[in-house]
Design goal:
The complex is a heterodimer. Chain A is of the alpha+beta class. Among the domains of chain A are: 134 residues; 118 residues, Immunoglobulin-like; 115 residues, TATA-Binding Protein, CATH 3.30.310.10. In chain A, strand 3 and strand 4 form a beta hairpin. Classes of the chains: A alpha+beta, B alpha+beta. Chain A: Adaptor protein complex 2 (AP-2) is a heterotetramer composed of two large adaptins (alpha-type subunit AP2A1 or AP2A2 and beta-type subunit AP2B1), a medium adaptin (mu-type subunit AP2M1) and a small adaptin (sigma-type subunit AP2S1). Chain A: It is a peripheral membrane protein. Chain A: InterPro entries: Adaptor_Complx_Large_Subunit, AP2_complex_asu, ARM-like, ARM-type_fold, Clathrin/coatomer_adapt-like_N, Clathrin_a-adaptin_app_sub_C, Clathrin_a/b/g-adaptin_app_Ig, Clathrin_app_Ig-like_sf.
């Protein structure tokens, strides 16, 4: 066979490449290249028309220079010229240059497409293939537009050469992948399926990739391919190793085609036709049998090719999941590979067995290999193999072997690669929870996790252990004792402090009888860690301290002392300072009864899917955790939460949502923690208990006329909190979307629309499309008041759960004209002077209405201050009345407003009068305020 | 095809990337693959894909495929390709690939197209390549 010699055909190119290779430095190389570029440029610009050969040579040099990593900004036109050459070698270089250096220069694209069109209709198979390869390599939208209808015709035409068919099939596949909308199904589709019967195995090999892709998208239209694929496979599998000649690879008949056929079958359920199914099962059995035969060659190529088919067959068997006999045989075969000397095979066997473990038919068979897999976890040199072993242990775990597997995984964690620690931690946490029979084992396991790999224990993991301890009263004493012991370690992880703080705060009393863990000992132990902890942990500890005061009155003095010291009560962190101040105040003024109510033990958490599982799923991507596992975990989570013996949870459960503290603080501490906080906030809140959930979307709106922060909306799924601040005519609103479920929200999107666009300008950035279960995301709106307005902006929220129906929700955003008030202080005489100035009838708006809320002076004052105006004392001659003044700031103007509210306590009525420099504002304010009192 | 020193001998792309992204990907692949030794598998996870690779003297042949694709089939796909190169260039060495880079692209297109296997028969591919070789 004649060999290709160095750079034959183009001497100049070979010389140039040699020169480049001989360059001693980067500079020399650049110099040589620049010289060449100058030369080529002058040739292209020269008067003398270049012959095809020279053009080819220079274009090829340019291509070489580009591939070395240098920019090329000319020569495209010469390359396009080469496309219309009649010589193969020139055309080939032209097409190669275009494929590698294509850009979206519209002028050139037209010329290129024209050349391709000519070649496609040339009936010269070599040229047709070049053109098809160019389309397949570039795969641009423009090319799809030009050729998507032409290529199917070439593919199924009776007189098309085999090699052209191969290229056309894959070219069409590329266009279908980039522009599926442009490749229209038609009568060609049924003819494409019949290419599975083509005599030429190369045509079948290429066509089957196209058919597989199309079948995935349009299974019904292509379902006839199943029987064709089975018979083709059957012919290959039953052929002798020499029958297929050209397509036999190291004594294995058509390995790639076999794999592709088996893969195509995985797009469909098992064949319904008994004969077809029988034939297929026979094929699969033959493939399994062949794996047991002595090899026909010692070469690795032989065994790889054979095993490629075997693994694909096993994938199909698992996909069908209906033939127990085949499943168990597959498992046994993989079991042999687990101890094979080839690392590749051990790896693939572990990977494949992982899916077998989820089938009820083969789960038990997989479990028999536990010792081998544990050994792999300990001894494999390649981290990716160890990773697969860990995956498999996780997949094969059930109640019977959970303790062993969890113990092995824990001990592996001590030395595990950093890259897989977090995932291992999640897996251990899930298994421990899922298969816990006695909860002391569960608590031990999680605390061990924190001890061994504290850095990798995510919030979800320690939240979960707390949820479970709260919900299971049989384990609370044990948990308190264990965590108390764990905290004795001189260096313990911050996550341990968090769990310790929380659990002792709730259940420290259960171990307080022992003098070694008396209340003060517990407190001192916790407090000894305080100074080494981050702010959120300290905040949690402060809450634990106030709980201690309630649990153990004898610690009150000590703890108050701690709270009172400057490092707490004047802490520069606003959250810590607030907690210290509030807790100190609470402990001094509240009676024991109030304290006991406020700091009551946490009620059980509502049943929910483990958030850890959700996290693992996210890490592994969709599909990594099988559906059965999901259902399992739900069921198990139900048991764990003790749903049966405690009954469904009642309204007394504080929703983790009425959580003003979380909203106010920049970095919300854990959900469990803020729960405790929310109770406290209610006590201090001057606006009464946290807003009830809004049934009507406007409801939330009106509650915010006189306040800026709180919960705007809440239902079973979603909670929306807002926090807003206004200055002059500008405002900023923080929206907090909390996913109350344990399931991810997908396609989460929000849009804000302003009914009067010229009045308000609201800017926002899109939110993340995924909101994990239990997570909260934040969105910032920047608001500008252009001119006065009546209609509030609307917030539309869309998202879906489980990929199901789209949830669609529209809320009125509480942006009202009064938000742009600047308070104005003035004397009595000034007030009445201005009041008289605003005496035109349309400037005044008045309403007399019945009181809907408390007429208590302090409540009224708070509301009027919340309105944004200045509340003026000693102005109105009648001390029962209230008067206020303020200026509304819009972009264009300032609108002065005066307000007078006259309560009549006996009649339970109010008269409200507004006078503003702009009549529309008087009316609007009057409407808004009439609903507030 | 990556040299041990980091030189790229040939790269074919079956998805759209801009030039910077391509360069970054090549560097990442190089970093991931070259640290592995002979006792390791020929597969390595890479972003949301996996790389199937095999080393021949100073050259790594790497294919990036979907995680669900058949590892061994692609591993042998690489070897099949290398055997064709070896036959076509008569005991191929790295230099052949440098001087004849434009022909190597043709070999790739004959065997792999649109990211799929187009032709597996060495006899058929070589016959076609020699036919093309004879054309002007």
């Amino acid at each position: 066979m004649p060999a290709v010699s160095k750079g034959d055909g183009m001497r100049g190119l070979a010389v140039f490449i040699s020169d480049i290779r001989n360059c001693k430095s980067k500079e020399a190389e650049i110099k040589r290249i620049n010289k060449e570029l100058a030369n080529i440029r002058s040739k292209f610009k020269g008067d003398k028309a270049l012959d095809g050969y020279s053009k080819k040579k220079y274009v090829c040099k340019l291509l070489f220079i580009f591939l070395l990593g240098h920019d090329i900004d000319f020569g495209h036109m010469e390359a396009v010229n080469l496309l219309s050459s009649n010589k193969y070698t020139e055309k080939q270089i032209g097409y190669l240059f275009i494929s590698v250096l294509v850009n979206s220069n519209s002028e050139l694209i037209r010329l290129i497409n024209n050349a391709i069109k000519n070649d496609l209709s040339s009936r010269n198979p070599t040229f047709m293939c070049l053109a098809l390869h160019c389309i397949a390599n570039v795969g641009s939208r423009e090319m799809a537009e030009a050729f998507a209808s032409e290529i199917p015709r070439i593919l199924v035409a009776g007189d098309t050469m085999d090699s052209v068919k191969q290229s056309a099939a894959l070219c069409l596949l590329r266009l279908y992948k980039t522009s599926p909308d442009l490749v229209l199904m038609g009568e060609w589709t049924s003819r494409v399926v019949h290419l599975l019967n083509d005599q030429h195995m190369g045509v079948v090999t290429a066509a089957i990739s196209l058919i597989t892709c199309l079948s995935q998208k349009n299974p019904d239209e292509f379902k006839t391919c199943v029987s064709l694929a089975v018979s083709r496979l059957s012919r290959i599998v039953s052929s002798a190793s020499t029958d297929l000649q050209d397509y036999t690879y190291y004594f294995v008949p058509a390995p790639w085609l076999s794999c592709k056929l088996l893969r195509l079958l995985q797009c469909y359920p098992p064949p319904e036709d008994g004969a077809v199914k029988g034939r297929l099962v026979e094929c699969l059995e033959t493939i399994l049998n062949k794996a047991q035969e002595p090899p026909k060659s010692k070469k690795v190529q032989h065994s790889n090719a054979k095993n490629a088919i075997l693994f694909e067959a096993i994938s199909l068997i698992i996909h069908y999941d209906s033939e127990p006999n085949l499943l168990v045989r597959a498992c046994n075969q993989l079991g042999q590979f687990l101890q094979h000397r080839e690392t590749n095979l051990r790896y693939l066997a572990l990977e494949s067995m992982c899916t077998l473990a989820s089938s009820e038919f083969s789960h038990e068979a997989v479990k028999t290999h536990i010792e081998t897999v544990i050994n792999a976890l300990k001894t494999e040199r390649d981290v990716s193999v160890r990773q697969r072993a860990a995956d498999l242990l996780y997949a094969m775990c059930d109640r019977s072997n959970a303790k062993q597997i969890v113990a092995e995984m824990l001990s592996y964690l001590e030395t595990a690669d950093y890259s897989i620690r977090e995932e291992m931690v999640l897996k251990v946490a899930i298994l421990a929870e899922k298969y816990a029979v006695d909860y002391s084992w569960y608590v031990d396991t999680i605390l061990n996790l924190i001890r061994i790999a504290g850095d990798y224990v995510s919030e979800e993991v320690w939240y979960r252990v707390i949820q479970i301890v709260i919900n299971r009263d049989d384990v609370q004493g044990y948990a308190a004792k264990t965590v108390f012991e764990a905290l004795q370690a001189p260096a313990c992880h911050e996550n341990m402090v968090k769990v310790g703080g929380y659990i002792l705060g709730e259940f420290g009393n259960l171990i307080a009888g022992d003098p070694r863990s008396s209340p003060l000992v517990q407190f001192n132990l916790l407090h000894s860690k305080f100074h080494l902890c981050s702010v959120p942990t300290r905040a949690l500890l402060l809450s634990a301290y106030i709980k201690f005061i309630n649990l153990f009155p004898e610690t009150k003095a000590t703890i108050q002392e701690v709270l009172r010291c400057d490092s707490q009560i004047r802490n520069s962190d606003v959250e810590l300072q607030q907690r210290a101040v509030e807790y100190l105040k609470l402990s001094s003024i509240a009676s024991t009864d109030v304290l006991a109510t406020v700091l009551e033990e946490m009620p059980p958490f509502p049943e929910r899917e483990s958030s850890i599982l959700a996290k693992l799923k996210k890490k592994k991507g969709p599909g990594a955790v099988s559906v059965t596992e999901l259902d399992d975990s739900k069921r198990e989570a139900g048991e764990l939460n003790g749903g049966a013996d405690r009954g469904p949870d009642t309204a007394s459960t504080p929703s983790p949502s009425a959580d003003l503290l979380g909203i106010r603080s920049a970095a919300p501490v854990g959900a469990a923690q803020t729960n405790a906080g929310s109770l406290l906030v209610d006590v201090f809140s001057d606006s009464g208990p946290a807003a009830p959930s809004a049934a009507v979307n406007d409801d939330g709106f009106l509650r915010f006329v006189c306040k800026n922060n709180g919960v705007l909306f809440e239902n079973q799924l979603l909670q929306i909190g807002i926090k807003s601040e206004y200055r002059q005519n500008l405002g900023r609103m923080y929206l907090f979307y909390g996913n109350k479920t344990s399931v991810q929200f997908a396609s989460f999107s929000t849009t804000v629309s302003c009914p009067g666009e010229l009045q308000l300008n609201v800017q926002s950035k899109p939110v993340e499309p995924l909101v994990e279960g239990g997570a909260q995301i934040q969105q910032v709106l920047n608001i500008e008041c252009i001119t006065d307005f009546c209609d509030a902006p609307l917030l539309n929220i869309k998202f879906s759960r489980y990929g199901g129906a789209l949830q669609n929700l529209t809320l009125k955003l509480p942006v009202t004209i009064n938000k742009f008030f600047q308070p104005t202080e003035m004397s009595s005489s000034d007030f009445f002077q201005r009041w008289k100035q605003l005496s035109q009838p349309q400037q005044e708006a008045q309403k007399i209405f019945k009181a809907n809320h408390s007429m208590d002076t302090e409540v009224l004052k708070a509301k009027l201050l919340g309105l944004g105006t200045a509340l003026l004392d000693n102005v109105d001659p009648n001390p029962e009345n209230y008067v206020c003044a303020g200026v509304i700031q819009t972009k264009g103007q300032q609108i002065g407003c005066l307000l007078r509210l006259e309560p009549n306590a006996q009649a339970q009525m109010y008269r409200l009068t507004l006078r503003c420099s702009k009549d529309t504002v008087s009316k609007r304010l009057c409407e808004l305020l009439a609903q507030q009192f | 095809m990556l040299g041990t020193t980091g030189k790229t001998r040939l790269a074919k792309w079956y998805m759209q990337f801009d030039d910077d992204e391509k360069q970054k990907l090549i560097e990442e692949v190089h970093a991931v693959v070259t640290v592995r030794d002979a006792k390791h598998t020929n597969f390595v996870e890479f972003r949301n894909f996996k790389i199937i690779y095999r080393r021949y003297a100073g050259l790594y042949f790497c294919i990036c495929v979907d995680v669900t694709d058949n590892n061994l089939a692609y591993l042998e796909g690489i070897h099949n390709f290398v055997e064709v190169l070896n036959e076509y260039f008569h005991n191929v060495c790295e230099l052949d690939l440098v001087f004849n880079f434009y022909k190597v692209y043709t070999v790739v297109d004959e065997m792999f197209l649109a990211g799929e296997i187009r032709e597996t028969s060495q006899t058929k591919v070589l016959k076609q390549l020699l036919m093309l070789q004879s054309l002007e």
